[in-house]
C-alpha cells in the first residue's frame, strides 16, 4: 500500500535530515536564490524550505496537503519570521496571486496523475518573470543499477515489482515540458543532478533508516517481511564497517512565467 501522509505515525518521515550542500550547488547553477520569495509546494517536513533560506532566499512559505507534515515542518523550523507553513493543496495553495518569485516542487509531481491543475496553480502564484523549479526522478533516473552509493537501485533489483510501480508513476521530460507550455510557462532548462541524501556511520544505521521507511514512499509498498528481506539483501552488498554515502540522481526542470 502507498504511504499515508496524513497519519501521525509518518509525521517526521520527511523532516529528519538536512538538505546536502550539493543540492544548494545545483540550485545555484540554474538561478540566483538571493533575496527572492519562495513557495515550497509539497514541502513535507520543511527540509528544503529551510534550505532555501540557507542559500539566501528572503522568505519561504511551505505548503503541504498533510496537516501532520505541516506540524512537523513547523516544529522543525519554527522561530524565524521569514519562514512559515500552511496546509493547502498543490492545485489550490490558498496563497495570493503573483506573490512569489520562485515556486519549488520537489518529489511532488510523481504523486499526481495529471499535472494541469498543479502547473496552473504555480503559474498563478508567480510574478511575471518568476521561475518554476520542479525536482523529481524520471524513469532514466530510477533505472540506474544499485551500488554502494546508489542504494535505491538495490530496491528494484530485489523487488522488480517496485520498479513496475515506479515506472508507472515517474514523470518524463516530454510530458513535463508539454504540460508546462500548456500552463503558460516557457521551459528554460532541464538538467540532471546527483544529490547526496545521507551519510550513514555504517550498515546498522542505514538498516534502521530503511526499516523505518524514512523518507521513502516506495518502501510503503512492501510488507514488513519483504522490507526485512530487502534490508538483508542490501546489507550483503555493502561494506560492513565503513561509512555509507547514499546518493540519488534527480532531474530538475526550470521554466519561466513570461507574462
Overall description:
- This protein has a domain at 8-145 and 169-197 and 250-257: Vaccinia Virus protein VP39 (Rossmann fold).
- The chain is built from ten helices and seven strands.
- With 259 residues, it is α/β, with parallel strands linked by helices.
- The chain has helices at 21-30, 47-54, 67-77, 116-125, 139-142, 152-158, 160-169, 173-182, 203-211, 224-235, and strands spanning 37-41, 59-64, 83-87, 100-106, 126-136, 185-200, 244-257.
- Helix content is 35%, strand content 25%.
- The chain has a seven-stranded mixed sheet.
- Strand 2, helix 3 and strand 3 form a beta-alpha-beta unit.
Write the layout of secondary structure elements.
Layout: H1 21-30, E1 37-41, H2 47-54, E2 59-64, H3 67-77, E3 83-87, E4 100-106, H4 116-125, E5 126-136, H5 139-142, H6 152-158, H7 160-169, H8 173-182, E6 185-200, H9 203-211, H10 224-235, E7 244-257
Parallel strand pairs: 1-2, 1-4, 2-3, 4-5
Antiparallel strand pairs: 5-7, 6-7
Helix pairs in contact: 6-7, 9-10
Amino acid at each position: 500500500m502507498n504511504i499515508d501522509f496524513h497519519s501521525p505515525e509518518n509525521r517526521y518521515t520527511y523532516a529528519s535530515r538536512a538538505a546536502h550542500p550539493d543540492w544548494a550547488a545545483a540550485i545555484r547553477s540554474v538561478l540566483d536564490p538571493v533575496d527572492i520569495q519562495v513557495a515550497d509546494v509539497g514541502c513535507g517536513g520543511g527540509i528544503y524550505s529551510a534550505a532555501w533560506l540557507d542559500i539566501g532566499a528572503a522568505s519561504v512559505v511551505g505548503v503541504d496537503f498533510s496537516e501532520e507534515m505541516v506540524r512537523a515542518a513547523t516544529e522543525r523550523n519554527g522561530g524565524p519570521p521569514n519562514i512559515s507553513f500552511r496546509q493547502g493543496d498543490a492545485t489550490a495553495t490558498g496563497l495570493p496571486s503573483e506573490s512569489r518569485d520562485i515556486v519549488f516542487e520537489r518529489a511532488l509531481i510523481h504523486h499526481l496523475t495529471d499535472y494541469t491543475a498543479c502547473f496552473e496553480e504555480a503559474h498563478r502564484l508567480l510574478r511575471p518573470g518568476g521561475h518554476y523549479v520542479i525536482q523529481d526522478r524520471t524513469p532514466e533516473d530510477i533505472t540506474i543499477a544499485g551500488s554502494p552509493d546508489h542504494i535505491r537501485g538495490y530496491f528494484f533489483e530485489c523487488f522488480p515489482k517496485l520498479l513496475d510501480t515506479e515506472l508507472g508513476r515517474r514523470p518524463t521530460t516530454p510530458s513535463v515540458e508539454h504540460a508546462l507550455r500548456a500552463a503558460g510557462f516557457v521551459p528554460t532548462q532541464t538538467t540532471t543532478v546527483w544529490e547526496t541524501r545521507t551519510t550513514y556511520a555504517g550498515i546498522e544505521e542505514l538498516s534502521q533508516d530503511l526499516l523505518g521507511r524514512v523518507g521513502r514512499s516506495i518502501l510503503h509498498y512492501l510488507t514488513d517481511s519483504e522490507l526485512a528481506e530487502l534490508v538483508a539483501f542490501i546489507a550483503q552488498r555493502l561494506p560492513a564497517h565503513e561509512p555509507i554515502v547514499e546518493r540519488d540522481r534527480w532531474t530538475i526542470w526550470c521554466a519561466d512565467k513570461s507574462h
